[in-house]
């Protein structure tokens, strides 16, 4: 930033600006992890506060926007959830954004479009070889749970690398239980 003054040049040369950016990103990631736990524990209001703080610290945190979209959709804030899902897509995570659109569409009463979107996601997942990345699998499983497809949820989780330590809690995650 700035006009390249001597202080900025010195900070860049010494690597301090990069360290500050990394520290901010680390704090944002910690907040996302804490919020994720709050979502699983059924405390969405506090989760949303943590996610807002994470986004304030790192506006490029796709996981923060993704989890906030989920909290907002489940809380009835459909427009805000759609907006967050769009940001997730713009941040380079279209699979997550589209999975969250399924949740939001269903919560908005548009089950037909939600099913169509889910079919496209499942086709995309089938084309992939090897294990699904954890977050891709998790958001797809959340979309499947929203559409009350518990068999699909388990199938997607089986496609995740079994060595991933997050898989154990993901299997017990209330977000992956069928929607009421």
Explain this structure to me?
The mean pLDDT is 89. The protein has 180 residues and is mainly alpha-helical. The protein has helices at residues 6-14, 16-40, 44-57, 62-74, 78-90, 94-107, 111-127, 134-146, 150-158, 166-172. The radius of gyration is 18 Å and the shape is globular. It is built from ten helices and no strands.
Task: Describe the secondary structure blueprint for this structure.
Blueprint: H1 6-14, H2 16-40, H3 44-57, H4 62-74, H5 78-90, H6 94-107, H7 111-127, H8 134-146, H9 150-158, H10 166-172
Helix pairs in contact: 2-3, 2-4, 3-4, 4-5, 4-6, 5-6, 6-7, 6-8, 8-9
What count of helical segments does DSSP give? 10
Cα radius of gyration in angstroms? 18 Å
Q: What is the helix content?
A: over 70%
Instruction: Give the helix/strand class.
Output: mainly alpha
Pick out the low-confidence regions. Answer: none
Relative strand content: under 5%
Number of strands: 0
- Main beta sheet strand tally, sense and closure: none
Overall outline:
globular
Mean pLDDT: 89
Oligomer: single chain
Straight-line distance between termini? 49 Å
Order of helices and strands: HHHHHHHHHH
């Amino acid at each position: 930033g700035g006009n390249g003054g001597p202080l900025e040049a010195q900070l860049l040369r010494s690597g301090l600006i990069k360290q500050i950016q990394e520290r901010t990103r680390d704090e944002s990631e910690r907040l996302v992890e804490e919020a994720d736990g709050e979502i699983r524990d059924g405390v969405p209001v506090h989760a949303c506060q943590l996610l807002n703080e994470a986004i304030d610290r790192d506006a490029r945190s796709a996981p923060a926007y993704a989890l906030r979209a989920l909290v907002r959709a489940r809380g009835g804030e459909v427009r805000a959830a759609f907006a967050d899902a769009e940001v997730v897509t713009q941040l380079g995570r279209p699979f997550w954004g589209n999975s969250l659109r399924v949740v939001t569409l269903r919560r908005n009463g548009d089950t037909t479009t939600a099913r169509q979107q889910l079919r496209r996601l499942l086709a995309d997942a089938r084309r992939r070889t090897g294990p699904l990345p954890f977050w891709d699998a998790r958001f797809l499983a959340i979309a499947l749970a929203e559409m009350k497809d518990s068999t699909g949820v388990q199938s997607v989780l089986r496609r995740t690398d079994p060595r991933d330590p997050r898989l154990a809690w993901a299997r017990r995650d209330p977000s992956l239980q069928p929607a009421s």
